[in-house]
Description:
By secondary structure, the chain is of the alpha/beta class. The chain has helices spanning about 80-85, 135-145, 160-170, 175-180, 210-220, 250-260, 295-320, 355-370, 400-410, and strands at about 30-35, 50, 75, 75-80, 90-95, 115-120, 125, 145-150, 195, 240-245, 270-280, 330-335, 375-380, 390-395, 395-400, 415-420, 420-425, 430, 435, 440-445, 450-455, 465-470, 475-480, 500-505, 505-510, 510-515, 520-529. The strands form seven sheets. Strands 2-5-8-9-10-11-12-13 form an eight-stranded parallel beta barrel, surrounded by five helices. Strands 16-20-21-27-23-24 form a six-stranded antiparallel beta sheet, covered by helices on one side. A five-stranded mixed beta sheet has the order 17-1-22-26-25, with no helix packed on it. Strand 12 (about 330-335), helix 8 (about 355-370) and strand 13 (about 375-380) form a beta-alpha-beta unit. The protein is globular, with a radius of gyration of 23 Å. The relative contact order is 0.16. Alpha-L-arabinofuranose (AHR) binds near residues 53, 97 and 382.
Amino acid sequence: MRKMGLAIAPLALLAAFVPGAVAAREDPATTVEIEVGQPGAKIDRHIFGQFAEHLGTGIYGGVWVGPDSPIPNVRGIRSDVVAALKAIRVPDVRWPGGCFADEYHWRNGVGPHRRSTVNANWGGAIEPDTFGTDEYMDFLHQIGAEAYVSVNVGSGTLEEAADWMAYMTADQRSSAGADRAANGHGEPYAVKYVGLGNESWGCGGNMRPQYYTDLLKRYARFTRNYNPAQQGDNNPNAMQRIAVGPTDDDTSYTEGVMEAWSKRDWSWSIEGLSLHSYTVPHWPPSLPSVGFGEDDYASILEATLKMDQRIARHAAIMDKYDPDRKVALVVDEWGVWLAENPGSPKGFLQQQNSMRDAIVAALNFNIFARHADRVRMANIAQMVNVLQSLILTDGPKMLLTPTYYVHQMYVPFQDATFVPVTFDAGEYRHGQIKLPRIDAVAVKATDGKLYLSLVNLDPVAGASVKVTLPDGRFGKAAGQVLTAPNVNSVNTFERPNTVTPRPIAGKVAGGVMTIDLPAKSVAMVALER
Ligand code: AHR
């Protein structure tokens, strides 16, 4: 268990929030003990999932440039973005929305004759529908990810959703499968995850939980997957159905959907319940993504750490109806939501991404890892050019954000086993805001190594961490650390390498590993013999 007590308080907060300021105080070392003998839950690699909505330049420009573009591409999908995503082993991509999904009519986006529509949710942009189902599946194939398709429960029909599933998964003896084959894809696609609506309590139709659960039962039954490779209840490739669930602290959908699920019969079920929870201290989002000071820094971190209690609250309700934890809590929209970049098209949700946002990502991954027995999937909003993006593009230019690098550093967490750690978090204080100074999570990875994630939230002071190593088995400690001149440092097209990881090593002696963390940093350290 993590100790969050304040037994070790900082001596004084003497240093002002000065760009690049040097530590003005000496804090005692944080001691971390790793309980290797008590492994916890598996950390599902799907907590590193992505979300790509037809919103702004999230798809058009960010992923899809078209086969005739001078930007290097394979069948219209930009190659630089594909290479970057392959490198972080993206497990799945949720698509086509978001609010967009509940106004998406999939037939507009298949075959030789595409029908353009108006993207009413996002700036009234014209949606050309040139990136549709077959292009999405091609994109997944290129990056090596699984499909997470959200069907239209808001403005579509059940017949339309069922027909879409048949188009994607049925063989060519059915007309839908034959249509797909005529569009160049003879073999059925695998659809690993299906989202049954999006935010049905809001943009997806503003439904009461009771009304939604009645619809859910029908969608869960009739959006069938016909792919022969996905049949059978115990098939690890069987499709998982994800119901709309709560937003933030509102538990009405958690109660409504889980109570209905607990009374289910043979005719329907779900395997996941969605939670949407953004880091945004006040709605509407108004904090800038660049040039901010310590007030914003501390309040964003305070807001993001609420994810822990939020998950615990919904998980407790789920435990009441599902003590065996069969239904996953799927945090399929999370991330920092800030003011749109000045001068960017309204409704495109374009924001920069800073060192602060990298810390937000790491803290959330650590929270998901601690709840790995219930949180088995999460999707950051969003993958490219929208909200807390991993990648930004501008015409032919592309850059990797600090949040991208956190994803890269956490690759060893994918399908690793959680290992409990005990530590005193200490305190980072700004005004009335009191936060833990250090965060730590350990895992046993699939490569057999022990990995330790360490986050120093203090924007000014470095931190020394002493890790008591289990039964002296380890002799080497090395990894990567992400830090920056300031918490508001960003990568730009002109200076794309301001915030990039660099090597870090710990000293191992007498069964103790000592490592010095820079201020405002995320470190991932592998412990080896
Ligand atoms: O990610 C942007 C939007 O936020 C999504 O479309 C919606 O589901 C949520 O409100």
